Amino acid sequence: MTGEQIVLVGGLWLDGSAWSGVATELTKRGRHAVPVTLPGQGDGHTSATLADQVAAVLAAVDAEPGGSVVVGHSAACTLAWLAADARPGRVAKVVLIGGFPSGNGQPYADFFPIVDGVMPFPGWEPFDGADAADLDEPARQAFAAAAIPVPAGVARGVVQLTDERRFDVPVVMVCPEFTPAQAREWIAAGDLPELTRAKHVTLVDIDSGHWPMLTRPAELAMILATV
Fold this sequence. Notes:
globular; alpha/beta; AB_hydrolase_1; two-stranded antiparallel sheet; Rossmann fold
């Protein structure tokens, strides 16, 4: 294996198995992939909190003293950024796929209704258009059937950022359902404050919807292996 380990953190409703195709491709390329199953998203703990999820990501980072590339997808872009905030000396790079880090004091992912203490997958209507354009009907049905309701303590957890050295950690933004040009405009306009302040941001395009680890695993792995 070569280079830093690549810690893979999925977004809402996903467990570590979402990365199986990407992890296989990374291994073929001689990279050490570490998919993370987050507390409350695959381990049965519906009382998990945002702090529990941050701790799980940090445990993966701390297990490799040689450094880590931390990959966050969608809402978990914030988890990757929280890892950089907590371990700026150990996180060599942050990769953001289809999302942006929330700022200090903001809710983590309070996007959809909470039902009986969890935020279930809301169905496909909120993702009409580019988000799900590359998922056919069987793939959508499989996704919905496997989707893990996210504990309220995660979704409504408050982001706490404390170390400005996070802005020194290089960031690679992988742009699936939006373009690098759009992301560049958002950063320049100050719409993504954490990334506006980041000192090293690289934008990479991928021709996919919101879940490239499911629809373009080989292409995504190639990007991650070379960032």
